[in-house]
Every structure is written in structure tokens, then in C-alpha cells.
Hints:
Elements: H1 3-9, E1 12-18, E2 23-26, H2 28-33, E3 42-44, H3 45-49, H4 54-70, E4 74-81, E5 87-100, E6 103-113, H5 129-147, H6 151-160, E7 170-177, E8 180-187, E9 199-201, H7 207-214, E10 218-220, H8 223-229, H9 234-239, E11 244-252, E12 255-264, H10 272-309, E13 320-327, E14 338-344, E15 350-357, H11 362-380, H12 385-407, E16 414-422, E17 427-433, E18 439-441, E19 447-449, E20 468-472, E21 478-482, H13 484-488, H14 494-507, H15 514-526, H16 536-539, E22 545-552, E23 562-568, H17 575-586, H18 593-613, E24 618-625, E25 634-641, H19 661-668, E26 671-676, E27 681-688, H20 694-698
Antiparallel strand pairs: 1-2, 1-6, 2-3, 4-5, 5-6, 7-8, 7-12, 8-9, 10-11, 11-12, 13-22, 14-15, 15-16, 16-17, 17-20, 18-19, 18-21, 21-22, 23-24, 24-25, 25-27, 26-27
Amino acid sequence: MRTEEVLSAIATGLWRWDNAAGVVTLDSEAARLLELPPEGRTFPESVVRARFHPVDWNEINGVVSLAIAEGTLAEGRLRVVDDEGRVLRTVRSRSKPVLFNGAYLLDGMLQQVAEPTEGTAARTPITGDWRRSREAFLLDAGRALAEARSTAEVLRVAASLSMPGFSPDGLAVFGAAGERLTIIGHHGHQSAGDDPFSDMRLDIDHPAAEVVRGGRAVYLPSPEEYNRRYPTSWPLAQRLGRQSWAYLPLIVAGRTMGAWMAAFRHPVAFTPDERSVLTTVARMLAQALTRAGVAESERELSLGLQRSMMPVLGPAIPGMTVAARYVPTGGGLQVGGDWYDMIPLPSGRIALVIGDVQGHDVRAAGLMGQLRIALRAYASEGHRPDAVLSRASRFLHGITDTYEQADHSGSRFATCLYLEVDPANGGIEIARAGHPEPAVRTADGTVLMRPTEGGLPLGIDPDSDYPTTRLTLEPGETMMLCTDGLLETGGHDLDTGWARLREVLEDHAEQGSLEELADSLVQAVHGPVSHYTIGPLADRREDDVALVLLCRDDTPTRETPRRTAITVAQAEPERISSARNQVRELLHDWADPEQVDSAVLMVSEMVTNVLVHTDGHALLAAEVTCQGATSPRRLRVEVTDSSDDLPHKRRPGEMASSGRGLMLMEMLADSWGVDPRGEGKSIWFLLHESNKPTSDADG
């Protein structure tokens, strides 16, 4: 009897599928099974493909790809349909794929099988409920592995996967490094320390080593098969009581990075469908492990950069306490351009520096490191604050210009606040380069933003000047320096962000240490954080945060004055508004609000007169003092200018727009006067706090 007759008698046909040529050759029985003319023999791919159910066709493509990758046979079941899409029969395909020039050649057989064919929902190992369960499982597994952020999390997710119908109860992940293979994680497996194969050479007789060497999966459906193929490692595997094993390569970008073992207590035949699930999980696991490894390396590098660039505050300043925080932004390496520093000076004073280089990337961090070193060098040479910032600006302009020419990445700038502190008397000299102004909380809890003169950010103009502002930190007062990340995060601008922080400063006026205050300020913006924070919280941050708090420790007395000062330049008339706000904040707890309004009105008149009638700047100094527990408080405001022309009282008409300043002071102030100076003059007024209650004033 001929072979063709035997195959026809058992409803089995032969085919050759040439993917490169796009044709399929069928014998007469295969053509009959597919409802194609038996005399045709060779058909286009599209004609044969149209005879298979589209769902099954997608499945068999995956089976063929898996067989090519593993060097095994491709097996599957497919439903044959007519021109109307009705299922006629189910055939079993078994073929050997050969890859050639990116295409494949299949030589195999088709055999009719007895399967229910009613409708279009015939249940086979490839289609029906099992297929839907498998798709749902792979979708959930992919989502869970994609969300894992560390190697430990990836291994926990892999251990919790419940595969449809054949869940393993033992897992191990082997990592390849050089010529060695190491177990990097396991579940349901014995301790790696008791396993002689937890660290082995790649040339050893072990299925994981063979998988890494060849890049192809190894399936061991029975203990007998394991013992026959790997007699050296079988004694250890035998002790664990498993019945089937699957070892799959972990491949990323064409490189085998390790192997994944799945062990089963029940026998598993490893059908094409089961192998397909295991292969897909192995691919997702390899990608997840790679992502986790990259993320862990970035976190380690980020922490290293932060710790190397953020100094530990010290030495201690006699009579003062300092607290500082740095919180990086989220994303990338979580490093940026914010920094702070404390520098001992040759004069015995201490310099405090806080700044922000534009950007949140590695280049910003690198520029910050160079700028910080330059600032330390200039300060250590004994230069004054204005000279330190001028030199730093020229330095940054030079190196950013070099960067721009080298990589066309654009020049960058930096904001900076530089303070020189005298611990003996609390004197502070401040130079500011485009940075947010400092804030001061007085001994009685009053919180004021301290206006300071400033220049352009560092690096923009190499010839920029940075005027110096002098003030005194009184006993019990605390100064806050911060970058704009602490103010503007969460949709706030500088004004609303400052209002948020002001509440925190006021709430801690009489309780808590300086360290607790620093934590509270950061928590008001980001929630609880440590000095260096990495993880989900960091991902929600919009900008880096640097914060420095300086407190003068001397015990305050009731006689400690409450002071503020501000310079209003001819070119900055808008700062008259800041002067009014300073006085209003200074008198935030004044008993009579009408007196507060009077003081603000007189300040506005005094400063405006200087700008209108002289060519110089106006220096406003305001001070609230108390002579004793029973004495009323007193406000003294003085405005100084460089003009020698003394003001004189006029009688303006009804329609006059000026000339009422001195008349207002005579009406509203308890006393006032004009004092000539060596160069210029000062005009001042006194206002004694009224005992009139606030409620009466409102009425």
C-alpha cells in the first residue's frame, strides 16, 4: 500500500508552507481537509489562510514563533471554516519550522480530529475558556510586573503569579555575570546558601547553565527526563519533590541575562500553549528585572551624588543653631541644582550660602558642584559678600559659555543668597543674586519677609554688581533661607507659597526645636520626608527644595525690639508697596487697627516724598520697642535720604495733589521731626500703642 493511501485512510495530509515565497503546497488529502481543489497542489498564502478561523490563525503564529525560538516542533489545533465563516472541522497541525533569511519554511502534516464543531466557540487547548483565561492572566501579569520598582518587588510579583491550570510552586531566577551563574532570587525553593548550584560556572551540567549558554528553553516534564539529561544536578532536584521543570532564558535586546526556573509538584506535559505562556512570562520578567536594575542603579547614583554634594553642617556656630534640608525633585536621577553650604571665614565669621542652578538634571548638578567649590574658594580668601557673588557670576558665565560652545545645550544661570554672619553680635551682611529674599521670625513670633537689595542671577552678566544689605539677628530670632521649590510647589506662586510657610513659622513660634521646624516646613509642601528622599514621594515633586534655618540662641527679653528695614531706590518705586507691607506686618498684633492704618499712610508719604523731591534712595527703618511689662509699646519709623534740603510745611489747596505729608504727620503722629545728618537728613515719627481694644476700633 502506498504512503498516500495510508495517510488518506487516517485523514492525514501533508503540507509545505514557504513563507518567503508566499505559497503553500498541499497534497490531495490536505487540500480536502481545507476544502480546496485537490488538483491545485500549490496555493497562495492568502487562500490557505482564509480557510482557518482568524483567532486560531493568530494563535498558531505565536506557536510557530515559539518553536523557532526553542528549536522544537510547532503543534496546534485549528478550526477550518467555509466562505461564510462556519466551522467545518478541526484539524491538528504538527510541523517543523526552519528559519531562513528572516522567513520560515514549514514541513508538516494536517490531521482531522474528532472535536465538537457546532457554532464558533469550539473549546480546544488553543481557543475557548483556556485561551481567555490565559489572556487575562498575561494582562494582569504584565501590569503587575510593569509596576514593580525594585528587583525584590519583581521577584515577589513573579512568585505570586497564578498561571491558568498549571501554576508552579517553586521559582528561581538565575543571573549571568561573566562566566558564572548566580541565584538572585527564589520562592518555594531551598535557601540559596544550601544549594551548591546557587553560584556555578556556565560550563557545568545544569539546565539553567545550558539555557544561558544556548539561549533556548529546557523543558523537563518528568523526573526520569531530568535524571537522564542532567545526572549531576538531579540528586539535589530529587530532594525537592517536584515532578516537572521549565527553565527559560531571560532575554533583553538579544542578550541572555539569566534564566528563570518554574518547578511543579504535578506532572506538566508542556504543550505548545503552556510553553507559550511560560515564554511570554519569561520575556516580561526579563524586561521587569532590567527596568528594576536600571532604577536601582539610578537611585544608588542619585544618593551618592546627593551625599557627596550636600555637606554636613558644621562646625557649630557659637550662640547660634543651624538646621538644613535638601529634598530632590522626582524623575530621572533625582538630582538637581539646589544646594546650601556653611563656610568658616578667616575673620572668624561664618558664611551661609543657598542657591539654585537652573535645571533638574545631571548637568545642573555638575554646575552646582563647580559653583559651590568656587564660592567656598572666594569666601575663604576673605572677600566681602558682594565681591564673592561678583566673582562667582564671572566664573559661572565662563564655564556655561564653554558648555554652550561644546554641546550647544545653552547657557545656564543660578540664583544665590550669600550671608556673612557675626556670631558675637548677630550682625549679618547679605548679598543676593536673583534669589528669594530671606524671612525672619522675631522673638515674639512676628514673621517678616526681609527685603534685601540684589542683582541679576549669577552667570547672566559677568559685570553685574551685588549691593550688600546689613541687619542684626536679635536674640531669639530665626532667619529662613530657601529656594523657590519650597515656595512654588503645588500650584503656588511666590506670594501664596510664602503665605503657606508663614503660617507654619508662626505656629512654631513658641514650641519645637529648629530641626522640628525644618521638618514642618518641608512637610507643609511635600508631606513627611527624610533629609534625602527617594521613591514614590519624590516622583510627585515639582522642583528641588533647599532650606536653611539660622537661630540666635540668646534668651530674648520683653525689651528686645522688633525691627525691619528696606531700601526703596529711585528706579524701584514699586517697592513703596513692600515698605507699607513691612510696617503692617510689623504691627500685626497692634491693639488699634486705626493706628496701623495711620502708620502705613505716613510711611507711604515719607518714602514717596524722598523719591519725588530728591535724586537718591530712601532707607526706611522701623522699630517696635517696649520699656516694661506695664508700658505701652512704641513704634519709631525713620526714613533717611542723601539730600540736604529740609522739608517744610505747606498749605495746599483743595485741588493740590501733594504737599500734605507733614500735615498728616502732625495730625496722626504722637511726635515727629527732621534731623540733619552729615550727608543728607532723616525724617521720623513716633506712635505710642493705644489701649483702645480692637473691638472698639472696629465699632
